[in-house]
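The methods section describes the discrete structure representation at length, but only in general terms. An entry of this sort, consisting of the sequence and the corresponding backbone structure tokens, reads as follows.
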Amino acid sequence: MSYVLTWSDGVGRVGTNTYLYDVTVKPTLDFAYDALYYETSTSLYIKVLNDNQKDLTDEEKELCLAYCKAFEESDEYICVAIDPDLKLYEGYMPRGEAKDKGLEVVAGAVPPDHPMSKWDGNQWRKIVAAIDEDGKLYLLPAQDNLKYNFVFTEKEWDAFPHPTYDDELYDFQSNEWKDARSLSGSKTLAEQRVRALYLQDFRNYQLVHFEIDPIIDMIQLKELLHQDDTPFVDAMAAEMGSDKTTILSRIQAHYAEDFLTDLGTLHGKMYKAIDGVRAAETLEALDVVMLPLFANTKYPWRRPAKVVPYASEN
């Protein structure tokens, strides 16, 4: 630890190697001086009195050191403040302000390179994970949440149990990660996702099998076959350089037995899944239906939890 106490021409400095303060009030010491230079890091120990420069005596050096140390313990001294429980960095502030906020002061420490850091008694450790009061996991958390219950350095997080899925919350009573989903909400979401999944299958099937967009359903088609006034089909035939009979025949061909069989199979699969969703009485039973359906899709039914702080998002 180095100490500084200087005074010259109405301006001085006092402090340590962690922080230097500019002062405009002459430090009161038990010896006379007009100018003073006490710097332990450079071994500069002199005073000026009546235009005469002298080396400081050992006793005067001790007085300067005592002044610096007393100032270091004063409420004005800028110091590192940490949360007394989590040991998280809270800021660089006057000691008095830290006391008022109920924070712990770390004497001699300098601020960490990363604001979300924990003091381990000897050095700063970056926080790579945190769990808030609701049990939610945060990786590489920011210093903007006052409700973190647990914070972890990289070593601590490696040793702590990790969640399996991203919808799990930490249970502070059982000290386990638990499924946080509600059955009713999950069933509603599951039915929506099943319908969306098979709707995409229907669309893909129709794009492959239809030469003409199937705007006309089977009932409309049957009616059109016996109607004289068919402006839509007439306009379509005119644009294509064809005729009404040919157009209707092409559309009707796509309602052949093999097409209806394939389309019915898709509907059957969809409603089988929906019936399974509606019948599920537990989240486990719901997962039995949903996990296989979405296993090979871009959006699986339950996403694996991200537990590696520096892993790529891709």
Observations:
- The longest helix spans residues 183-209.
- The chain has a mean pLDDT of 86.
- The two ends are 47 Å apart (CA to CA).
